[in-house]
Write a structure and sequence with these properties.
- The chain is an alpha/beta fold and 222 residues long.
- It is 39% helix and 19% strand.
- The protein contains nine helices and eleven strands.
- α1 packs across α2, α3 packs across α4 and α4 packs parallel to α6.
- The radius of gyration is 17 Å and the shape is globular.
- The two termini are 15 Å apart.
C-alpha cells in the first residue's frame, strides 16, 4: 500500500505504539539535550538531529561517533537518560493521543519505545497519558531500532503474528524497524512522511479504532 493522506481502513489484530513523536511530543527536550551533546563533541546540531529520533541514545552515538568505544557510548547514554528524565519542560501529548489510547481498552496493544522505563514513565505522565499494560522498553531488548527486535517482542508478548500487527511510528528508524518485523506501519506527523510508511496521518485525531466480533480491529485513518 503506498503512503497516502486519504482516508484508509486497515485490519489488524494488535497495535504496537512508539512513544516519542507518536503519542508524546517530546521534541523540545530532545532538541535541548542532543544539541548540548552535539556542542560538547564539536558536531553540527542540525546533522545530529537527523540521526537521533527513534534510536536508543547509545545507538545514535555509535552512528555519530563511530570510532568511540561502546562502553563510552553506554556511559554517556546513561547520563543523558538521567538528564532527559529530569527535564519534562514542553512535553505534551500528540493531538488525539489521549482519546486514541482510551479507545484501545480491550484491544491488544503494546508500547514499544527506545526510552527506558524511567523515561517512558515520566514522559507519559507529563503528557497526561496512561501507560499500556504491555511495554517493551530499552531494557527489554538487545538491539535498538531500526532493528525489529522490539516490535517482534511486542507481538510475541501479545500472542499475535507480526503480519497481523500495525505499528504507529514517527521516525525513520522506527518505520524501518516495523517494516523489518513484517508489519504495516502508520506514520504519524511530518517526520514520518519522509520515510514512506504505508499510511501517513498528521496526528492521532483522525484515527478511529473499531473492534470487530472476530477479534480483528478495523483502523479508520484520516
Amino acid at each position: 500500500m503506498p503512503a497516502t493522506a486519504t482516508p484508509t481502513i486497515l485490519t489488524a489484530r494488535a497495535l504496537l505504539l512508539d512513544m516519542d513523536g507518536t503519542l508524546v511530543n517530546s521534541d523540545a527536550v530532545v532538541e535541548r539535550i542532543w544539541r548540548r551533546w552535539a556542542g560538547r563533541h564539536g558536531l553540527d546540531g542540525d546533522e545530529v538531529m537527523k540521526v537521533v529520533h527513534g534510536r536508543q541514545g547509545h545507538a545514535s552515538m555509535a552512528v555519530l561517533l563511530p570510532e568511540r568505544p561502546v562502553e563510552q557510548n553506554l556511559a554517556d547514554n546513561a547520563r543523558m537518560l538521567a538528564e532527559e528524565t529530569a527535564d519534562m519542560d514542553g512535553v505534551v501529548e500528540v493531538p488525539g493521543a489521549g482519546a486514541f489510547l482510551a479507545s484501545l481498552r480491550g484491544v491488544p496493544h503494546a508500547l514499544v519505545t527506545s526510552a527506558d522505563v524511567a523515561l517512558s514513565t515520566a514522559r507519559m505522565a507529563a503528557a497526561g497519558l496512561p501507560l499500556p499494560q504491555v511495554r517493551v522498553t530499552a531494557e527489554s531488548v538487545g538491539a535498538s531500532k531500526p532493528d525489529p527486535e522490539g516490535f517482534l517482542k511486542g507481538a510475541a508478548e501479545l500472542g499475535v503474528d507480526p503480519a497481523d500487527c500495525v505499528v504507529f511510528e514517527d521516525s525513520g528508524a522506527g518505520i524501518a524497524a516495523g517494516r523489518a518485523a513484517g508489519m504495516r506501519v502508520v506514520g504519524v506527523g511530518e517526520r514520518a512522511a519522509r520515510h514512506a510508511p504505508d499510511v501517513v496521518v498528521p496526528d492521532l485525531t483522525g484515527v478511529r479504532v473499531e473492534p470487530a466480533g472476530d477479534g480483528t480491529i478495523r483502523l479508520h485513518l484520516a
